Amino acid sequence: MGALIIAVFCLVFYEWFKMVINSNFSVLSKLIWFFIGLTYIAIAFRNFWTFSLQPGGNHLLMTILVLVWASDTGGYLFGMTLKGPKFAPAISPNKTWSGVAGGFILTWIVAHIIFTFTVHFTLHDLYKSALIAFSISILAQFGDFLESWVKRQFNVKDTSNLIPGHGGFMDRLDGVIAVGFALSISKFYGYEIAKILGG
C-alpha cells in the first residue's frame, strides 16, 4: 500500500506542477500557487502514509475511499434525478442542493453497512455512522468545490488527461485529498475517526 500511495502522490504532484507551469500567471504567482498546492497535497498523502503503517491502516484507507466515492456517487445520482436549486453555481454549475443531500445520505447508508460488519454497529449506532458519514461527505464535497474553484482560476477543465475520459488523478481524488488533509490538521478528530474506521 505504501508504494501505491507514493506512486499516486507523484502523479497528483505532477498534475499540479504541470498545471501551474502552464498557467499564464506571473512567476511570483506561480511560485505561490505551487507551494500552496504542494503543501496541501503533501500533508494529505503524508497522513495516508502514516495510516498505512498502523495496524488496520489499510482497512482505514479503503474505508475512506469507499465513503468518499459513495458521497460522489450519491451526489451525482440524486443531483441528476432530482435536480433543483444550484448549490454554488459560480463555482460548480452542476452541483445542486439535492446532490449535496444525496451525497450525505448514500455515505451514511454505506458507512453503517461497513461498520455493521467491522465494528458491529447496530441500529442504536445510527447516529455514530451519521456523524462520520456527514463529516466525510462534507469534507469530500468541499474538496470537490475547492478543486472546481482552483481549476477556474487556471482556466482548465481537467488537471490532466492521465485517465482517458475522466481527467486526471487529482480530479478523481479531490475529495479523498481533502479528507486526508482535514484528518491531518485535526489530530484528535483524526484519531477518533481512525479508531472507529480502523476497528
| Strands ordered across the widest β-sheet | 1-2
What does the main sheet amount to? 2 strands, antiparallel
**Given the C-alpha coordinates, what overall shape results?**
globular
Structural class: mainly alpha
Can you count the beta strands? 2
**Fraction of helical residues:** over 70%
List key phrases describing it.
mainly alpha, 77% helix, two-stranded antiparallel ribbon, 199 residues, 4% strand, 7 helices
Describe this structure in words.
This protein has 199 residues and is mainly alpha-helical. The protein has one domain (2-198). 77% of the residues lie in helices and 4% in strands. It contains seven helices and two strands; from the N terminus they run αααββαααα. The chain has helices at residues 2-21, 27-53, 57-82, 97-118, 126-154, 169-185, 187-198, and strands spanning 86-88, 92-96. Strands 1-2 form a two-stranded antiparallel ribbon. The longest helix has 29 residues, at 126-154. It is globular. The two termini are 19 Å apart. The mean pLDDT is 86.
Write a brief caption for the model.
With 199 residues, this protein is mainly alpha-helical. It has one domain. 77% of the residues lie in helices and 4% in strands.
